Each structure stands twice: as C-alpha cells, then as structure tokens.
Amino acid sequence: MTENMVVEAARMTPSDIFNASVASSAIGAAWEAGALDELADHDKLDIAEFAERQDLDPSAVEGMFQALASVRIVQRSAGMVFPDVNFAEVFRAKAFYHWLSRGSAALFADMPAVLRNENRTGQFYRRDSSAIAVACRDINANFFDPVFHGVVDKLEFTKIADLGCGSGERIISVLRGNPDTTGLGIDIAEGALSVAEEAVRESGFDDRISFILDDATAPAPHAEFADVDLLTSFLMGHDLWPRDNCVASLRRLRAAFPNVRRFLLGDTARTTTIPDSEIPVFTLGFEVAHRMMGVYLPTLQEWRGVFEEGGWRLVAEHRVETPADSVIFELEPLAS
C-alpha cells in the first residue's frame, strides 16, 4: 500500500463523521430495544414484526436501522435486517455506545456551557446514573470480569463488599460461584442502587446481599463493614483523585474495613502513549468526559505511587485488554 493510499484510507469525510455520530445513538437504542441481541442470536430481524412485537413505531425503527446501516453495522433488504461486517465488533462494545449516548448524552450536549468557567460551580453537569450503571454492567461482564474471576477464584473469603457497586452484577456473579458467601454493595447514586436492588430480587439473593447508600470514597462507619474480607471497586477508582484525596481515601478504606484480606481495584487510567488519531473505542469518550466534569484521571504510573502511602501493598497487576490502560490492582493491607 502506497503512502497516498494509507492517507486516503485514514481520511474521514464530514459525512462519515456525522453519520457515525447518529449511528452511535442508534447503537445504544438498538441494544436497549433488544434488536442487537436478537440479531446476535438469529442473524436476521423482520423490521415490521419486531416493531409490532416490541410496541415501537415502525418508521422510527426503520430510521434506527438506517443509521446502523450507514456505518455497515447492519444491512437492510426487503424489510429485513442482517448483521454486516462491523456487527460483531460493535456488539461486543455495545455498552460503550450506551454509556456515551444514554448515560453521558447530557454532558456532551452541554459541552459549550460546561467549558465556561463561570458555569463550573456546584453540580454543573448532568449524567444518567441508571444508564451508566447498565452500561458498566456490560463493560464489566465483557472486559473486566474474565480477568476478575480468574483472580477471585484463587482467593478465600466469606463476605465481599463492592464500592460503587452500580448495577450489583459483580456481587451477584461472585455469590453464584461461592454459595457460602454474602455481599454488600455501596453506592452514592440512588438510581444505580435501584437497578442493583431489582437485579438482586431477580437473582433470588435477597437474603445474602444488602446495600448501603453512601459515598464509597469516604464511607461513614457501618457495622456491616466489620466482617468484610474481600473489598472490590471497579470503574470508579479515579473518583478518589487528585493524589492527596486518593491517599486519604485509601487510608479511610483501610480503617473502615479492618478485616479485609484483599482489595481488588479495577479502573481505566489516562493514556499517555496513544496518538490522538489512533485512540481506541471508549477511551476518547472516557477521557474527554472526565475532563469536562473536572475529574482528574491518573495514569497507571500515578496509581502505583499511592498505594503504600495509602496503607496498601501492591501484590499484583492484572491487565485488562479493553478499554486501553485498564488494570485490576490486587492489594493487601499493610500492617498498622
């Protein structure tokens, strides 16, 4: 391939960029409506029949599939829809688009206002915590959980507490494989806890899992913390930062959970070596969103520099393939 051919292949036209933006919202909608799962299971979908069965407007559904077809996620033919060349990869990453188009839509829509210093006081941005919890559940299941369960299967514990538990799926998945354990979820978002409580009811683990509405970065003392021996936190560790706050939070967690034997901290760090034109899926949205919100994202190297000062020893790093620069830090408490 010549240099000119490489440049041409990398070039996106204004219509490419615009159509991809519309398709991004359509991916989130198609997943929420059940269309992506149906295509993944059956390799075809009748648009009119699907719209009637799901009580959806048929013209609007046609428009959703038109948006997906514009970027070759699906093909449309004679009222039918079929997976196209980009379907499999997009299906695996579908929660990233849901995170963007549903959970973070208001934040990006308000970007012009969020940029202005005069507006950056108090709670100056909007996000949908319930939608983000749903997206993070799928992100965890597809990318973090295979690594996470490989670590957990080697540990001995009786009670797990999940900081920023979101949808509660992590605790549920752990209890499925450990019948003698109990779980505790802590989250500051009532919307996320509503999702989690419903998931627990559906799982039948009501008698083994409970939840606490609290700030996972600085939880108040709770009697339920005393017998926790496995602590986990995923996709919210960056909320502990900047550095001084992170060290203080790690110390508070060390004191709040006196009998913890392992702390599994999984998060996505700020990338430092990826060129702007080569940023992979999710990474750009994740990093730009946190810049807009004024939340500091540490690098992997910065993470490594806070653990001992915060009262924890880094036992191992378990790398996660996607998103970029994602890792599960395996920590144990330092002797008091």
UniProtKB/TrEMBL annotation:
UniProt entry keywords in alphabetical sequence: Methyltransferase, S-adenosyl-L-methionine, Transferase
Gene3D superfamilies, A to Z: Vaccinia Virus protein VP39 (3.40.50.150), Winged helix-like DNA-binding domain superfamily/Winged helix DNA-binding domain (1.10.10.10)
Any one Gene Ontology molecular-function term assigned to this protein's record: methyltransferase activity
UniProt-listed GO biological process terms: methylation
Domain Methyltransferase: 159-234
SUPFAM superfamilies for this protein: S-adenosyl-L-methionine-dependent methyltransferases, Winged helix' DNA-binding domain
Name of this chain's protein: Methyltransferase domain-containing protein
